[in-house]
Design goal:
Length: 557
């Protein structure tokens, strides 16, 4: 009898070779809860889980604090901490948590009365990086090569010019006061590269959190996030300037570079909720998910409806909280998949496709529509052969992908929003979409098209902004053949002895032109001798004693 039992035992192992092995594998599981009953949190006390800045942003947009803003019931989280189970993260928007466990330990969680479902979302890959590396000393650089004739933007002139950022830049709108959260796979050496001296030394660069390894170390893991950050926050005048070098940045690590699993979508949601809670205005995520290391978890095109995938469900809610969410559309346009990925399918989230230096769709840029017929991508931005920061010193490189298009757009929108910080996300986006070159005829290749930030600025009221230092500043298109500017009357300012200076976009003085002013309710300034100027942006300075008026003019081709 004893011998027969032993033989049966070995037969069982022979026919089930993975049974015990699978129980020993450590995985990650998505746990959804049934409710938020008996929670110690209340929408009547939002300051317990949302910062004052986050509440101010919502109040400005008329967005109420809802039940999905409440954190997960801490008693539910506590109940998950059984032997063999470790809570990785949680989501208040989706009322869920992610746990690390083997299958045998995870299975009983489904029997808890407040658990709605338990879903396998990938292997657990142990942390490969130390909790924190020693801090490195930042050594600001004072000397770096500048391209001849590159202007203020230097090597980024073309890509920033495609979004028509120069007039905003000249008007002093470079992102100041706007908070940007950046989610990626790591930001290697971003705390030491000279390209980020401006934001770092002015206290505008913050390591947020590593949602992959659950620590505060974000300046490691991947160079990808560093390149993404550079096209927004980089600032070496005349050499490399990002779209919004005066903004404040928070760096979040949500992408696990060691493997591709849906748990990264849960990390994306956790990062988005973190950004919301601190009061961020804009979030960039150059991330997307379609296929995984475990192919049984792959997404199917019909699931890209904003309601199915974990990441898409979270992103759909994220877009309702008064922030602007921008996500890369994907690089599958010339591949077998072809379409956008998760969470770019979410309604309200801005899926960004890529264009080349001529504004044409890059062949790799993923296509729409979503299976429920919505236009995707939403907008496009420079993403083909984009100049980015390198891995050391002032090294630069060229990168391509919608991973660059999304932060290019975010930098531009950040600059625009800094001109009108009192505006809501919806108002800013309305101006951006209206300015895009396919707004009247969107398609599923370029969406609503390539935005014109100067046009959006003017549509929001940017004819008469105020420049730093308090001097009024005027913006106008001018005709080079006639040399004519039109602007609001300043009859009490102009007098005999006024001097005019003409400067290019870098501030280089070109000449002292002659001018005539016809005074009416709307005054006309006529300047002679502009016929030889090439297309571009120019400044006219009118000086009278200690007073100076500055006008910005764009000469068309």
């Amino acid at each position: 009898m004893q011998l027969r039992l032993i033989c049966c035992f070995f037969i069982l192992l022979f026919f089930n070779p993975f049974l015990l092995l699978s129980q020993q594998k450590t995985n990650k599981y998505w746990i959804e809860f049934t409710d938020k009953n008996d929670s110690p949190f209340c929408t009547c006390r939002p300051a317990e889980f949302l910062s004052a800045r986050a509440l101010e942003r919502r109040a400005r947009a008329g967005i109420a604090v809802e039940e999905n803003d409440l954190p997960v019931n801490p008693l539910y989280i506590k109940a998950l901490n059984k032997p063999g189970v470790k809570v990785h993260t949680s989501s208040r928007w989706l009322n869920a948590a992610v746990v690390i466990a083997d299958s045998a330990s995870a299975a009983p969680l489904a029997a808890l009365p407040f658990v709605k479902k338990v879903e396998y979302i990938g292997r657990h890959i142990p942390a490969k990086n130390p909790p924190n590396r020693p801090a490195k000393k930042r050594l600001p650089v004072k000397d770096y090569p500048r391209p001849e004739g590159g202007g203020e933007f230097g090597y980024t002139g073309l890509q920033n010019g495609l979004l028509n950022l120069t007039p905003l830049y000249l008007a002093g709108h470079r992102g100041e006061g706007i908070w940007v959260a950046v989610m990626d796979g790591g930001f290697t050496n971003a705390d030491t590269l000279p390209i980020f001296d401006s934001v770092a030394l002015r206290g505008r660069l913050f390591p947020g959190w590593d949602f992959v390894e659950r620590d505060g170390a974000v300046y490691e893991g991947a160079q990808h996030g560093t390149s993404v950050l550079s096209v927004m926050a980089g600032n070496l005048p005349g050499y490399f300037v990002g779209g919004a070098p005066d903004a404040t940045y928070f760096l979040l690590k949500t992408e696990d570079t060691a493997g591709e699993y849906p748990v990264e979508e849960a990390n994306w949601i956790a990062g988005a909720e973190w950004a919301d809670s601190i009061g961020a205005d804009i979030v960039n995520a150059s991330l997307g998910y379609t296929v995984f290391n475990d192919t049984s978890l792959n997404h199917r095109y019909l699931q890209l409806n904003g309601r199915t995938a974990i990441g898409s469900r979270g992103a759909t809610i994220a877009a309702t909280k008064g922030m602007i969410f921008s996500n890369s559309a994907g690089n599958e346009g010339d591949g077998t998949w072809r379409y956008i990925g998760v969470p770019a399918d979410a309604p309200g989230l801005i899926a960004v496709g890529a264009v080349n230096g001529q504004g044409e769709r890059a062949s790799f840029s993923s296509l729409g529509p979503t299976p429920d017929g919505r236009i995707k991508p939403d907008l496009v931005a420079p993403g083909d052969q984009v100049v980015t920061a390198g891995g050391s010193g002032v090294q630069l490189g060229l990168s391509s992908g919608t991973s660059l298009a999304s932060p290019m757009l975010v930098g531009a929108i950040t600059a625009l929003w800094s001109a009108y910080p009192e505006k809501t996300a919806a108002e800013i986006l309305d101006a951006v979409f209206t300015s895009a070159d396919q707004y009247e005829m969107p398609d599923n290749r370029r969406g609503y098209g390539l935005p014109d930030m100067t046009r959006a600025w003017l549509d929001l009221g940017g004819f008469l902004p105020h420049a730093p230092g308090g001097y009024p500043e005027y913006f106008s298109n001018f005709n080079r053949d006639q040399g004519r500017f039109t602007f609001l009357a300043l009859n009490d300012f102009f007098a005999a002895g006024d001097v005019m200076e003409l400067l290019d976009c870098t501030g280089r003085k070109l000449e002292n032109p002659t001018f005539r002013i016809d005074r009416n309710a709307i005054s006309t300034l006529t300047v002679s001798g502009l016929e030889h100027l090439g297309p571009g942006v120019y400044q006219l300075l009118l000086k009278n004693g200690s007073r100076t008026e500055r006008m910005i003019g764009i000469a068309g081709p």
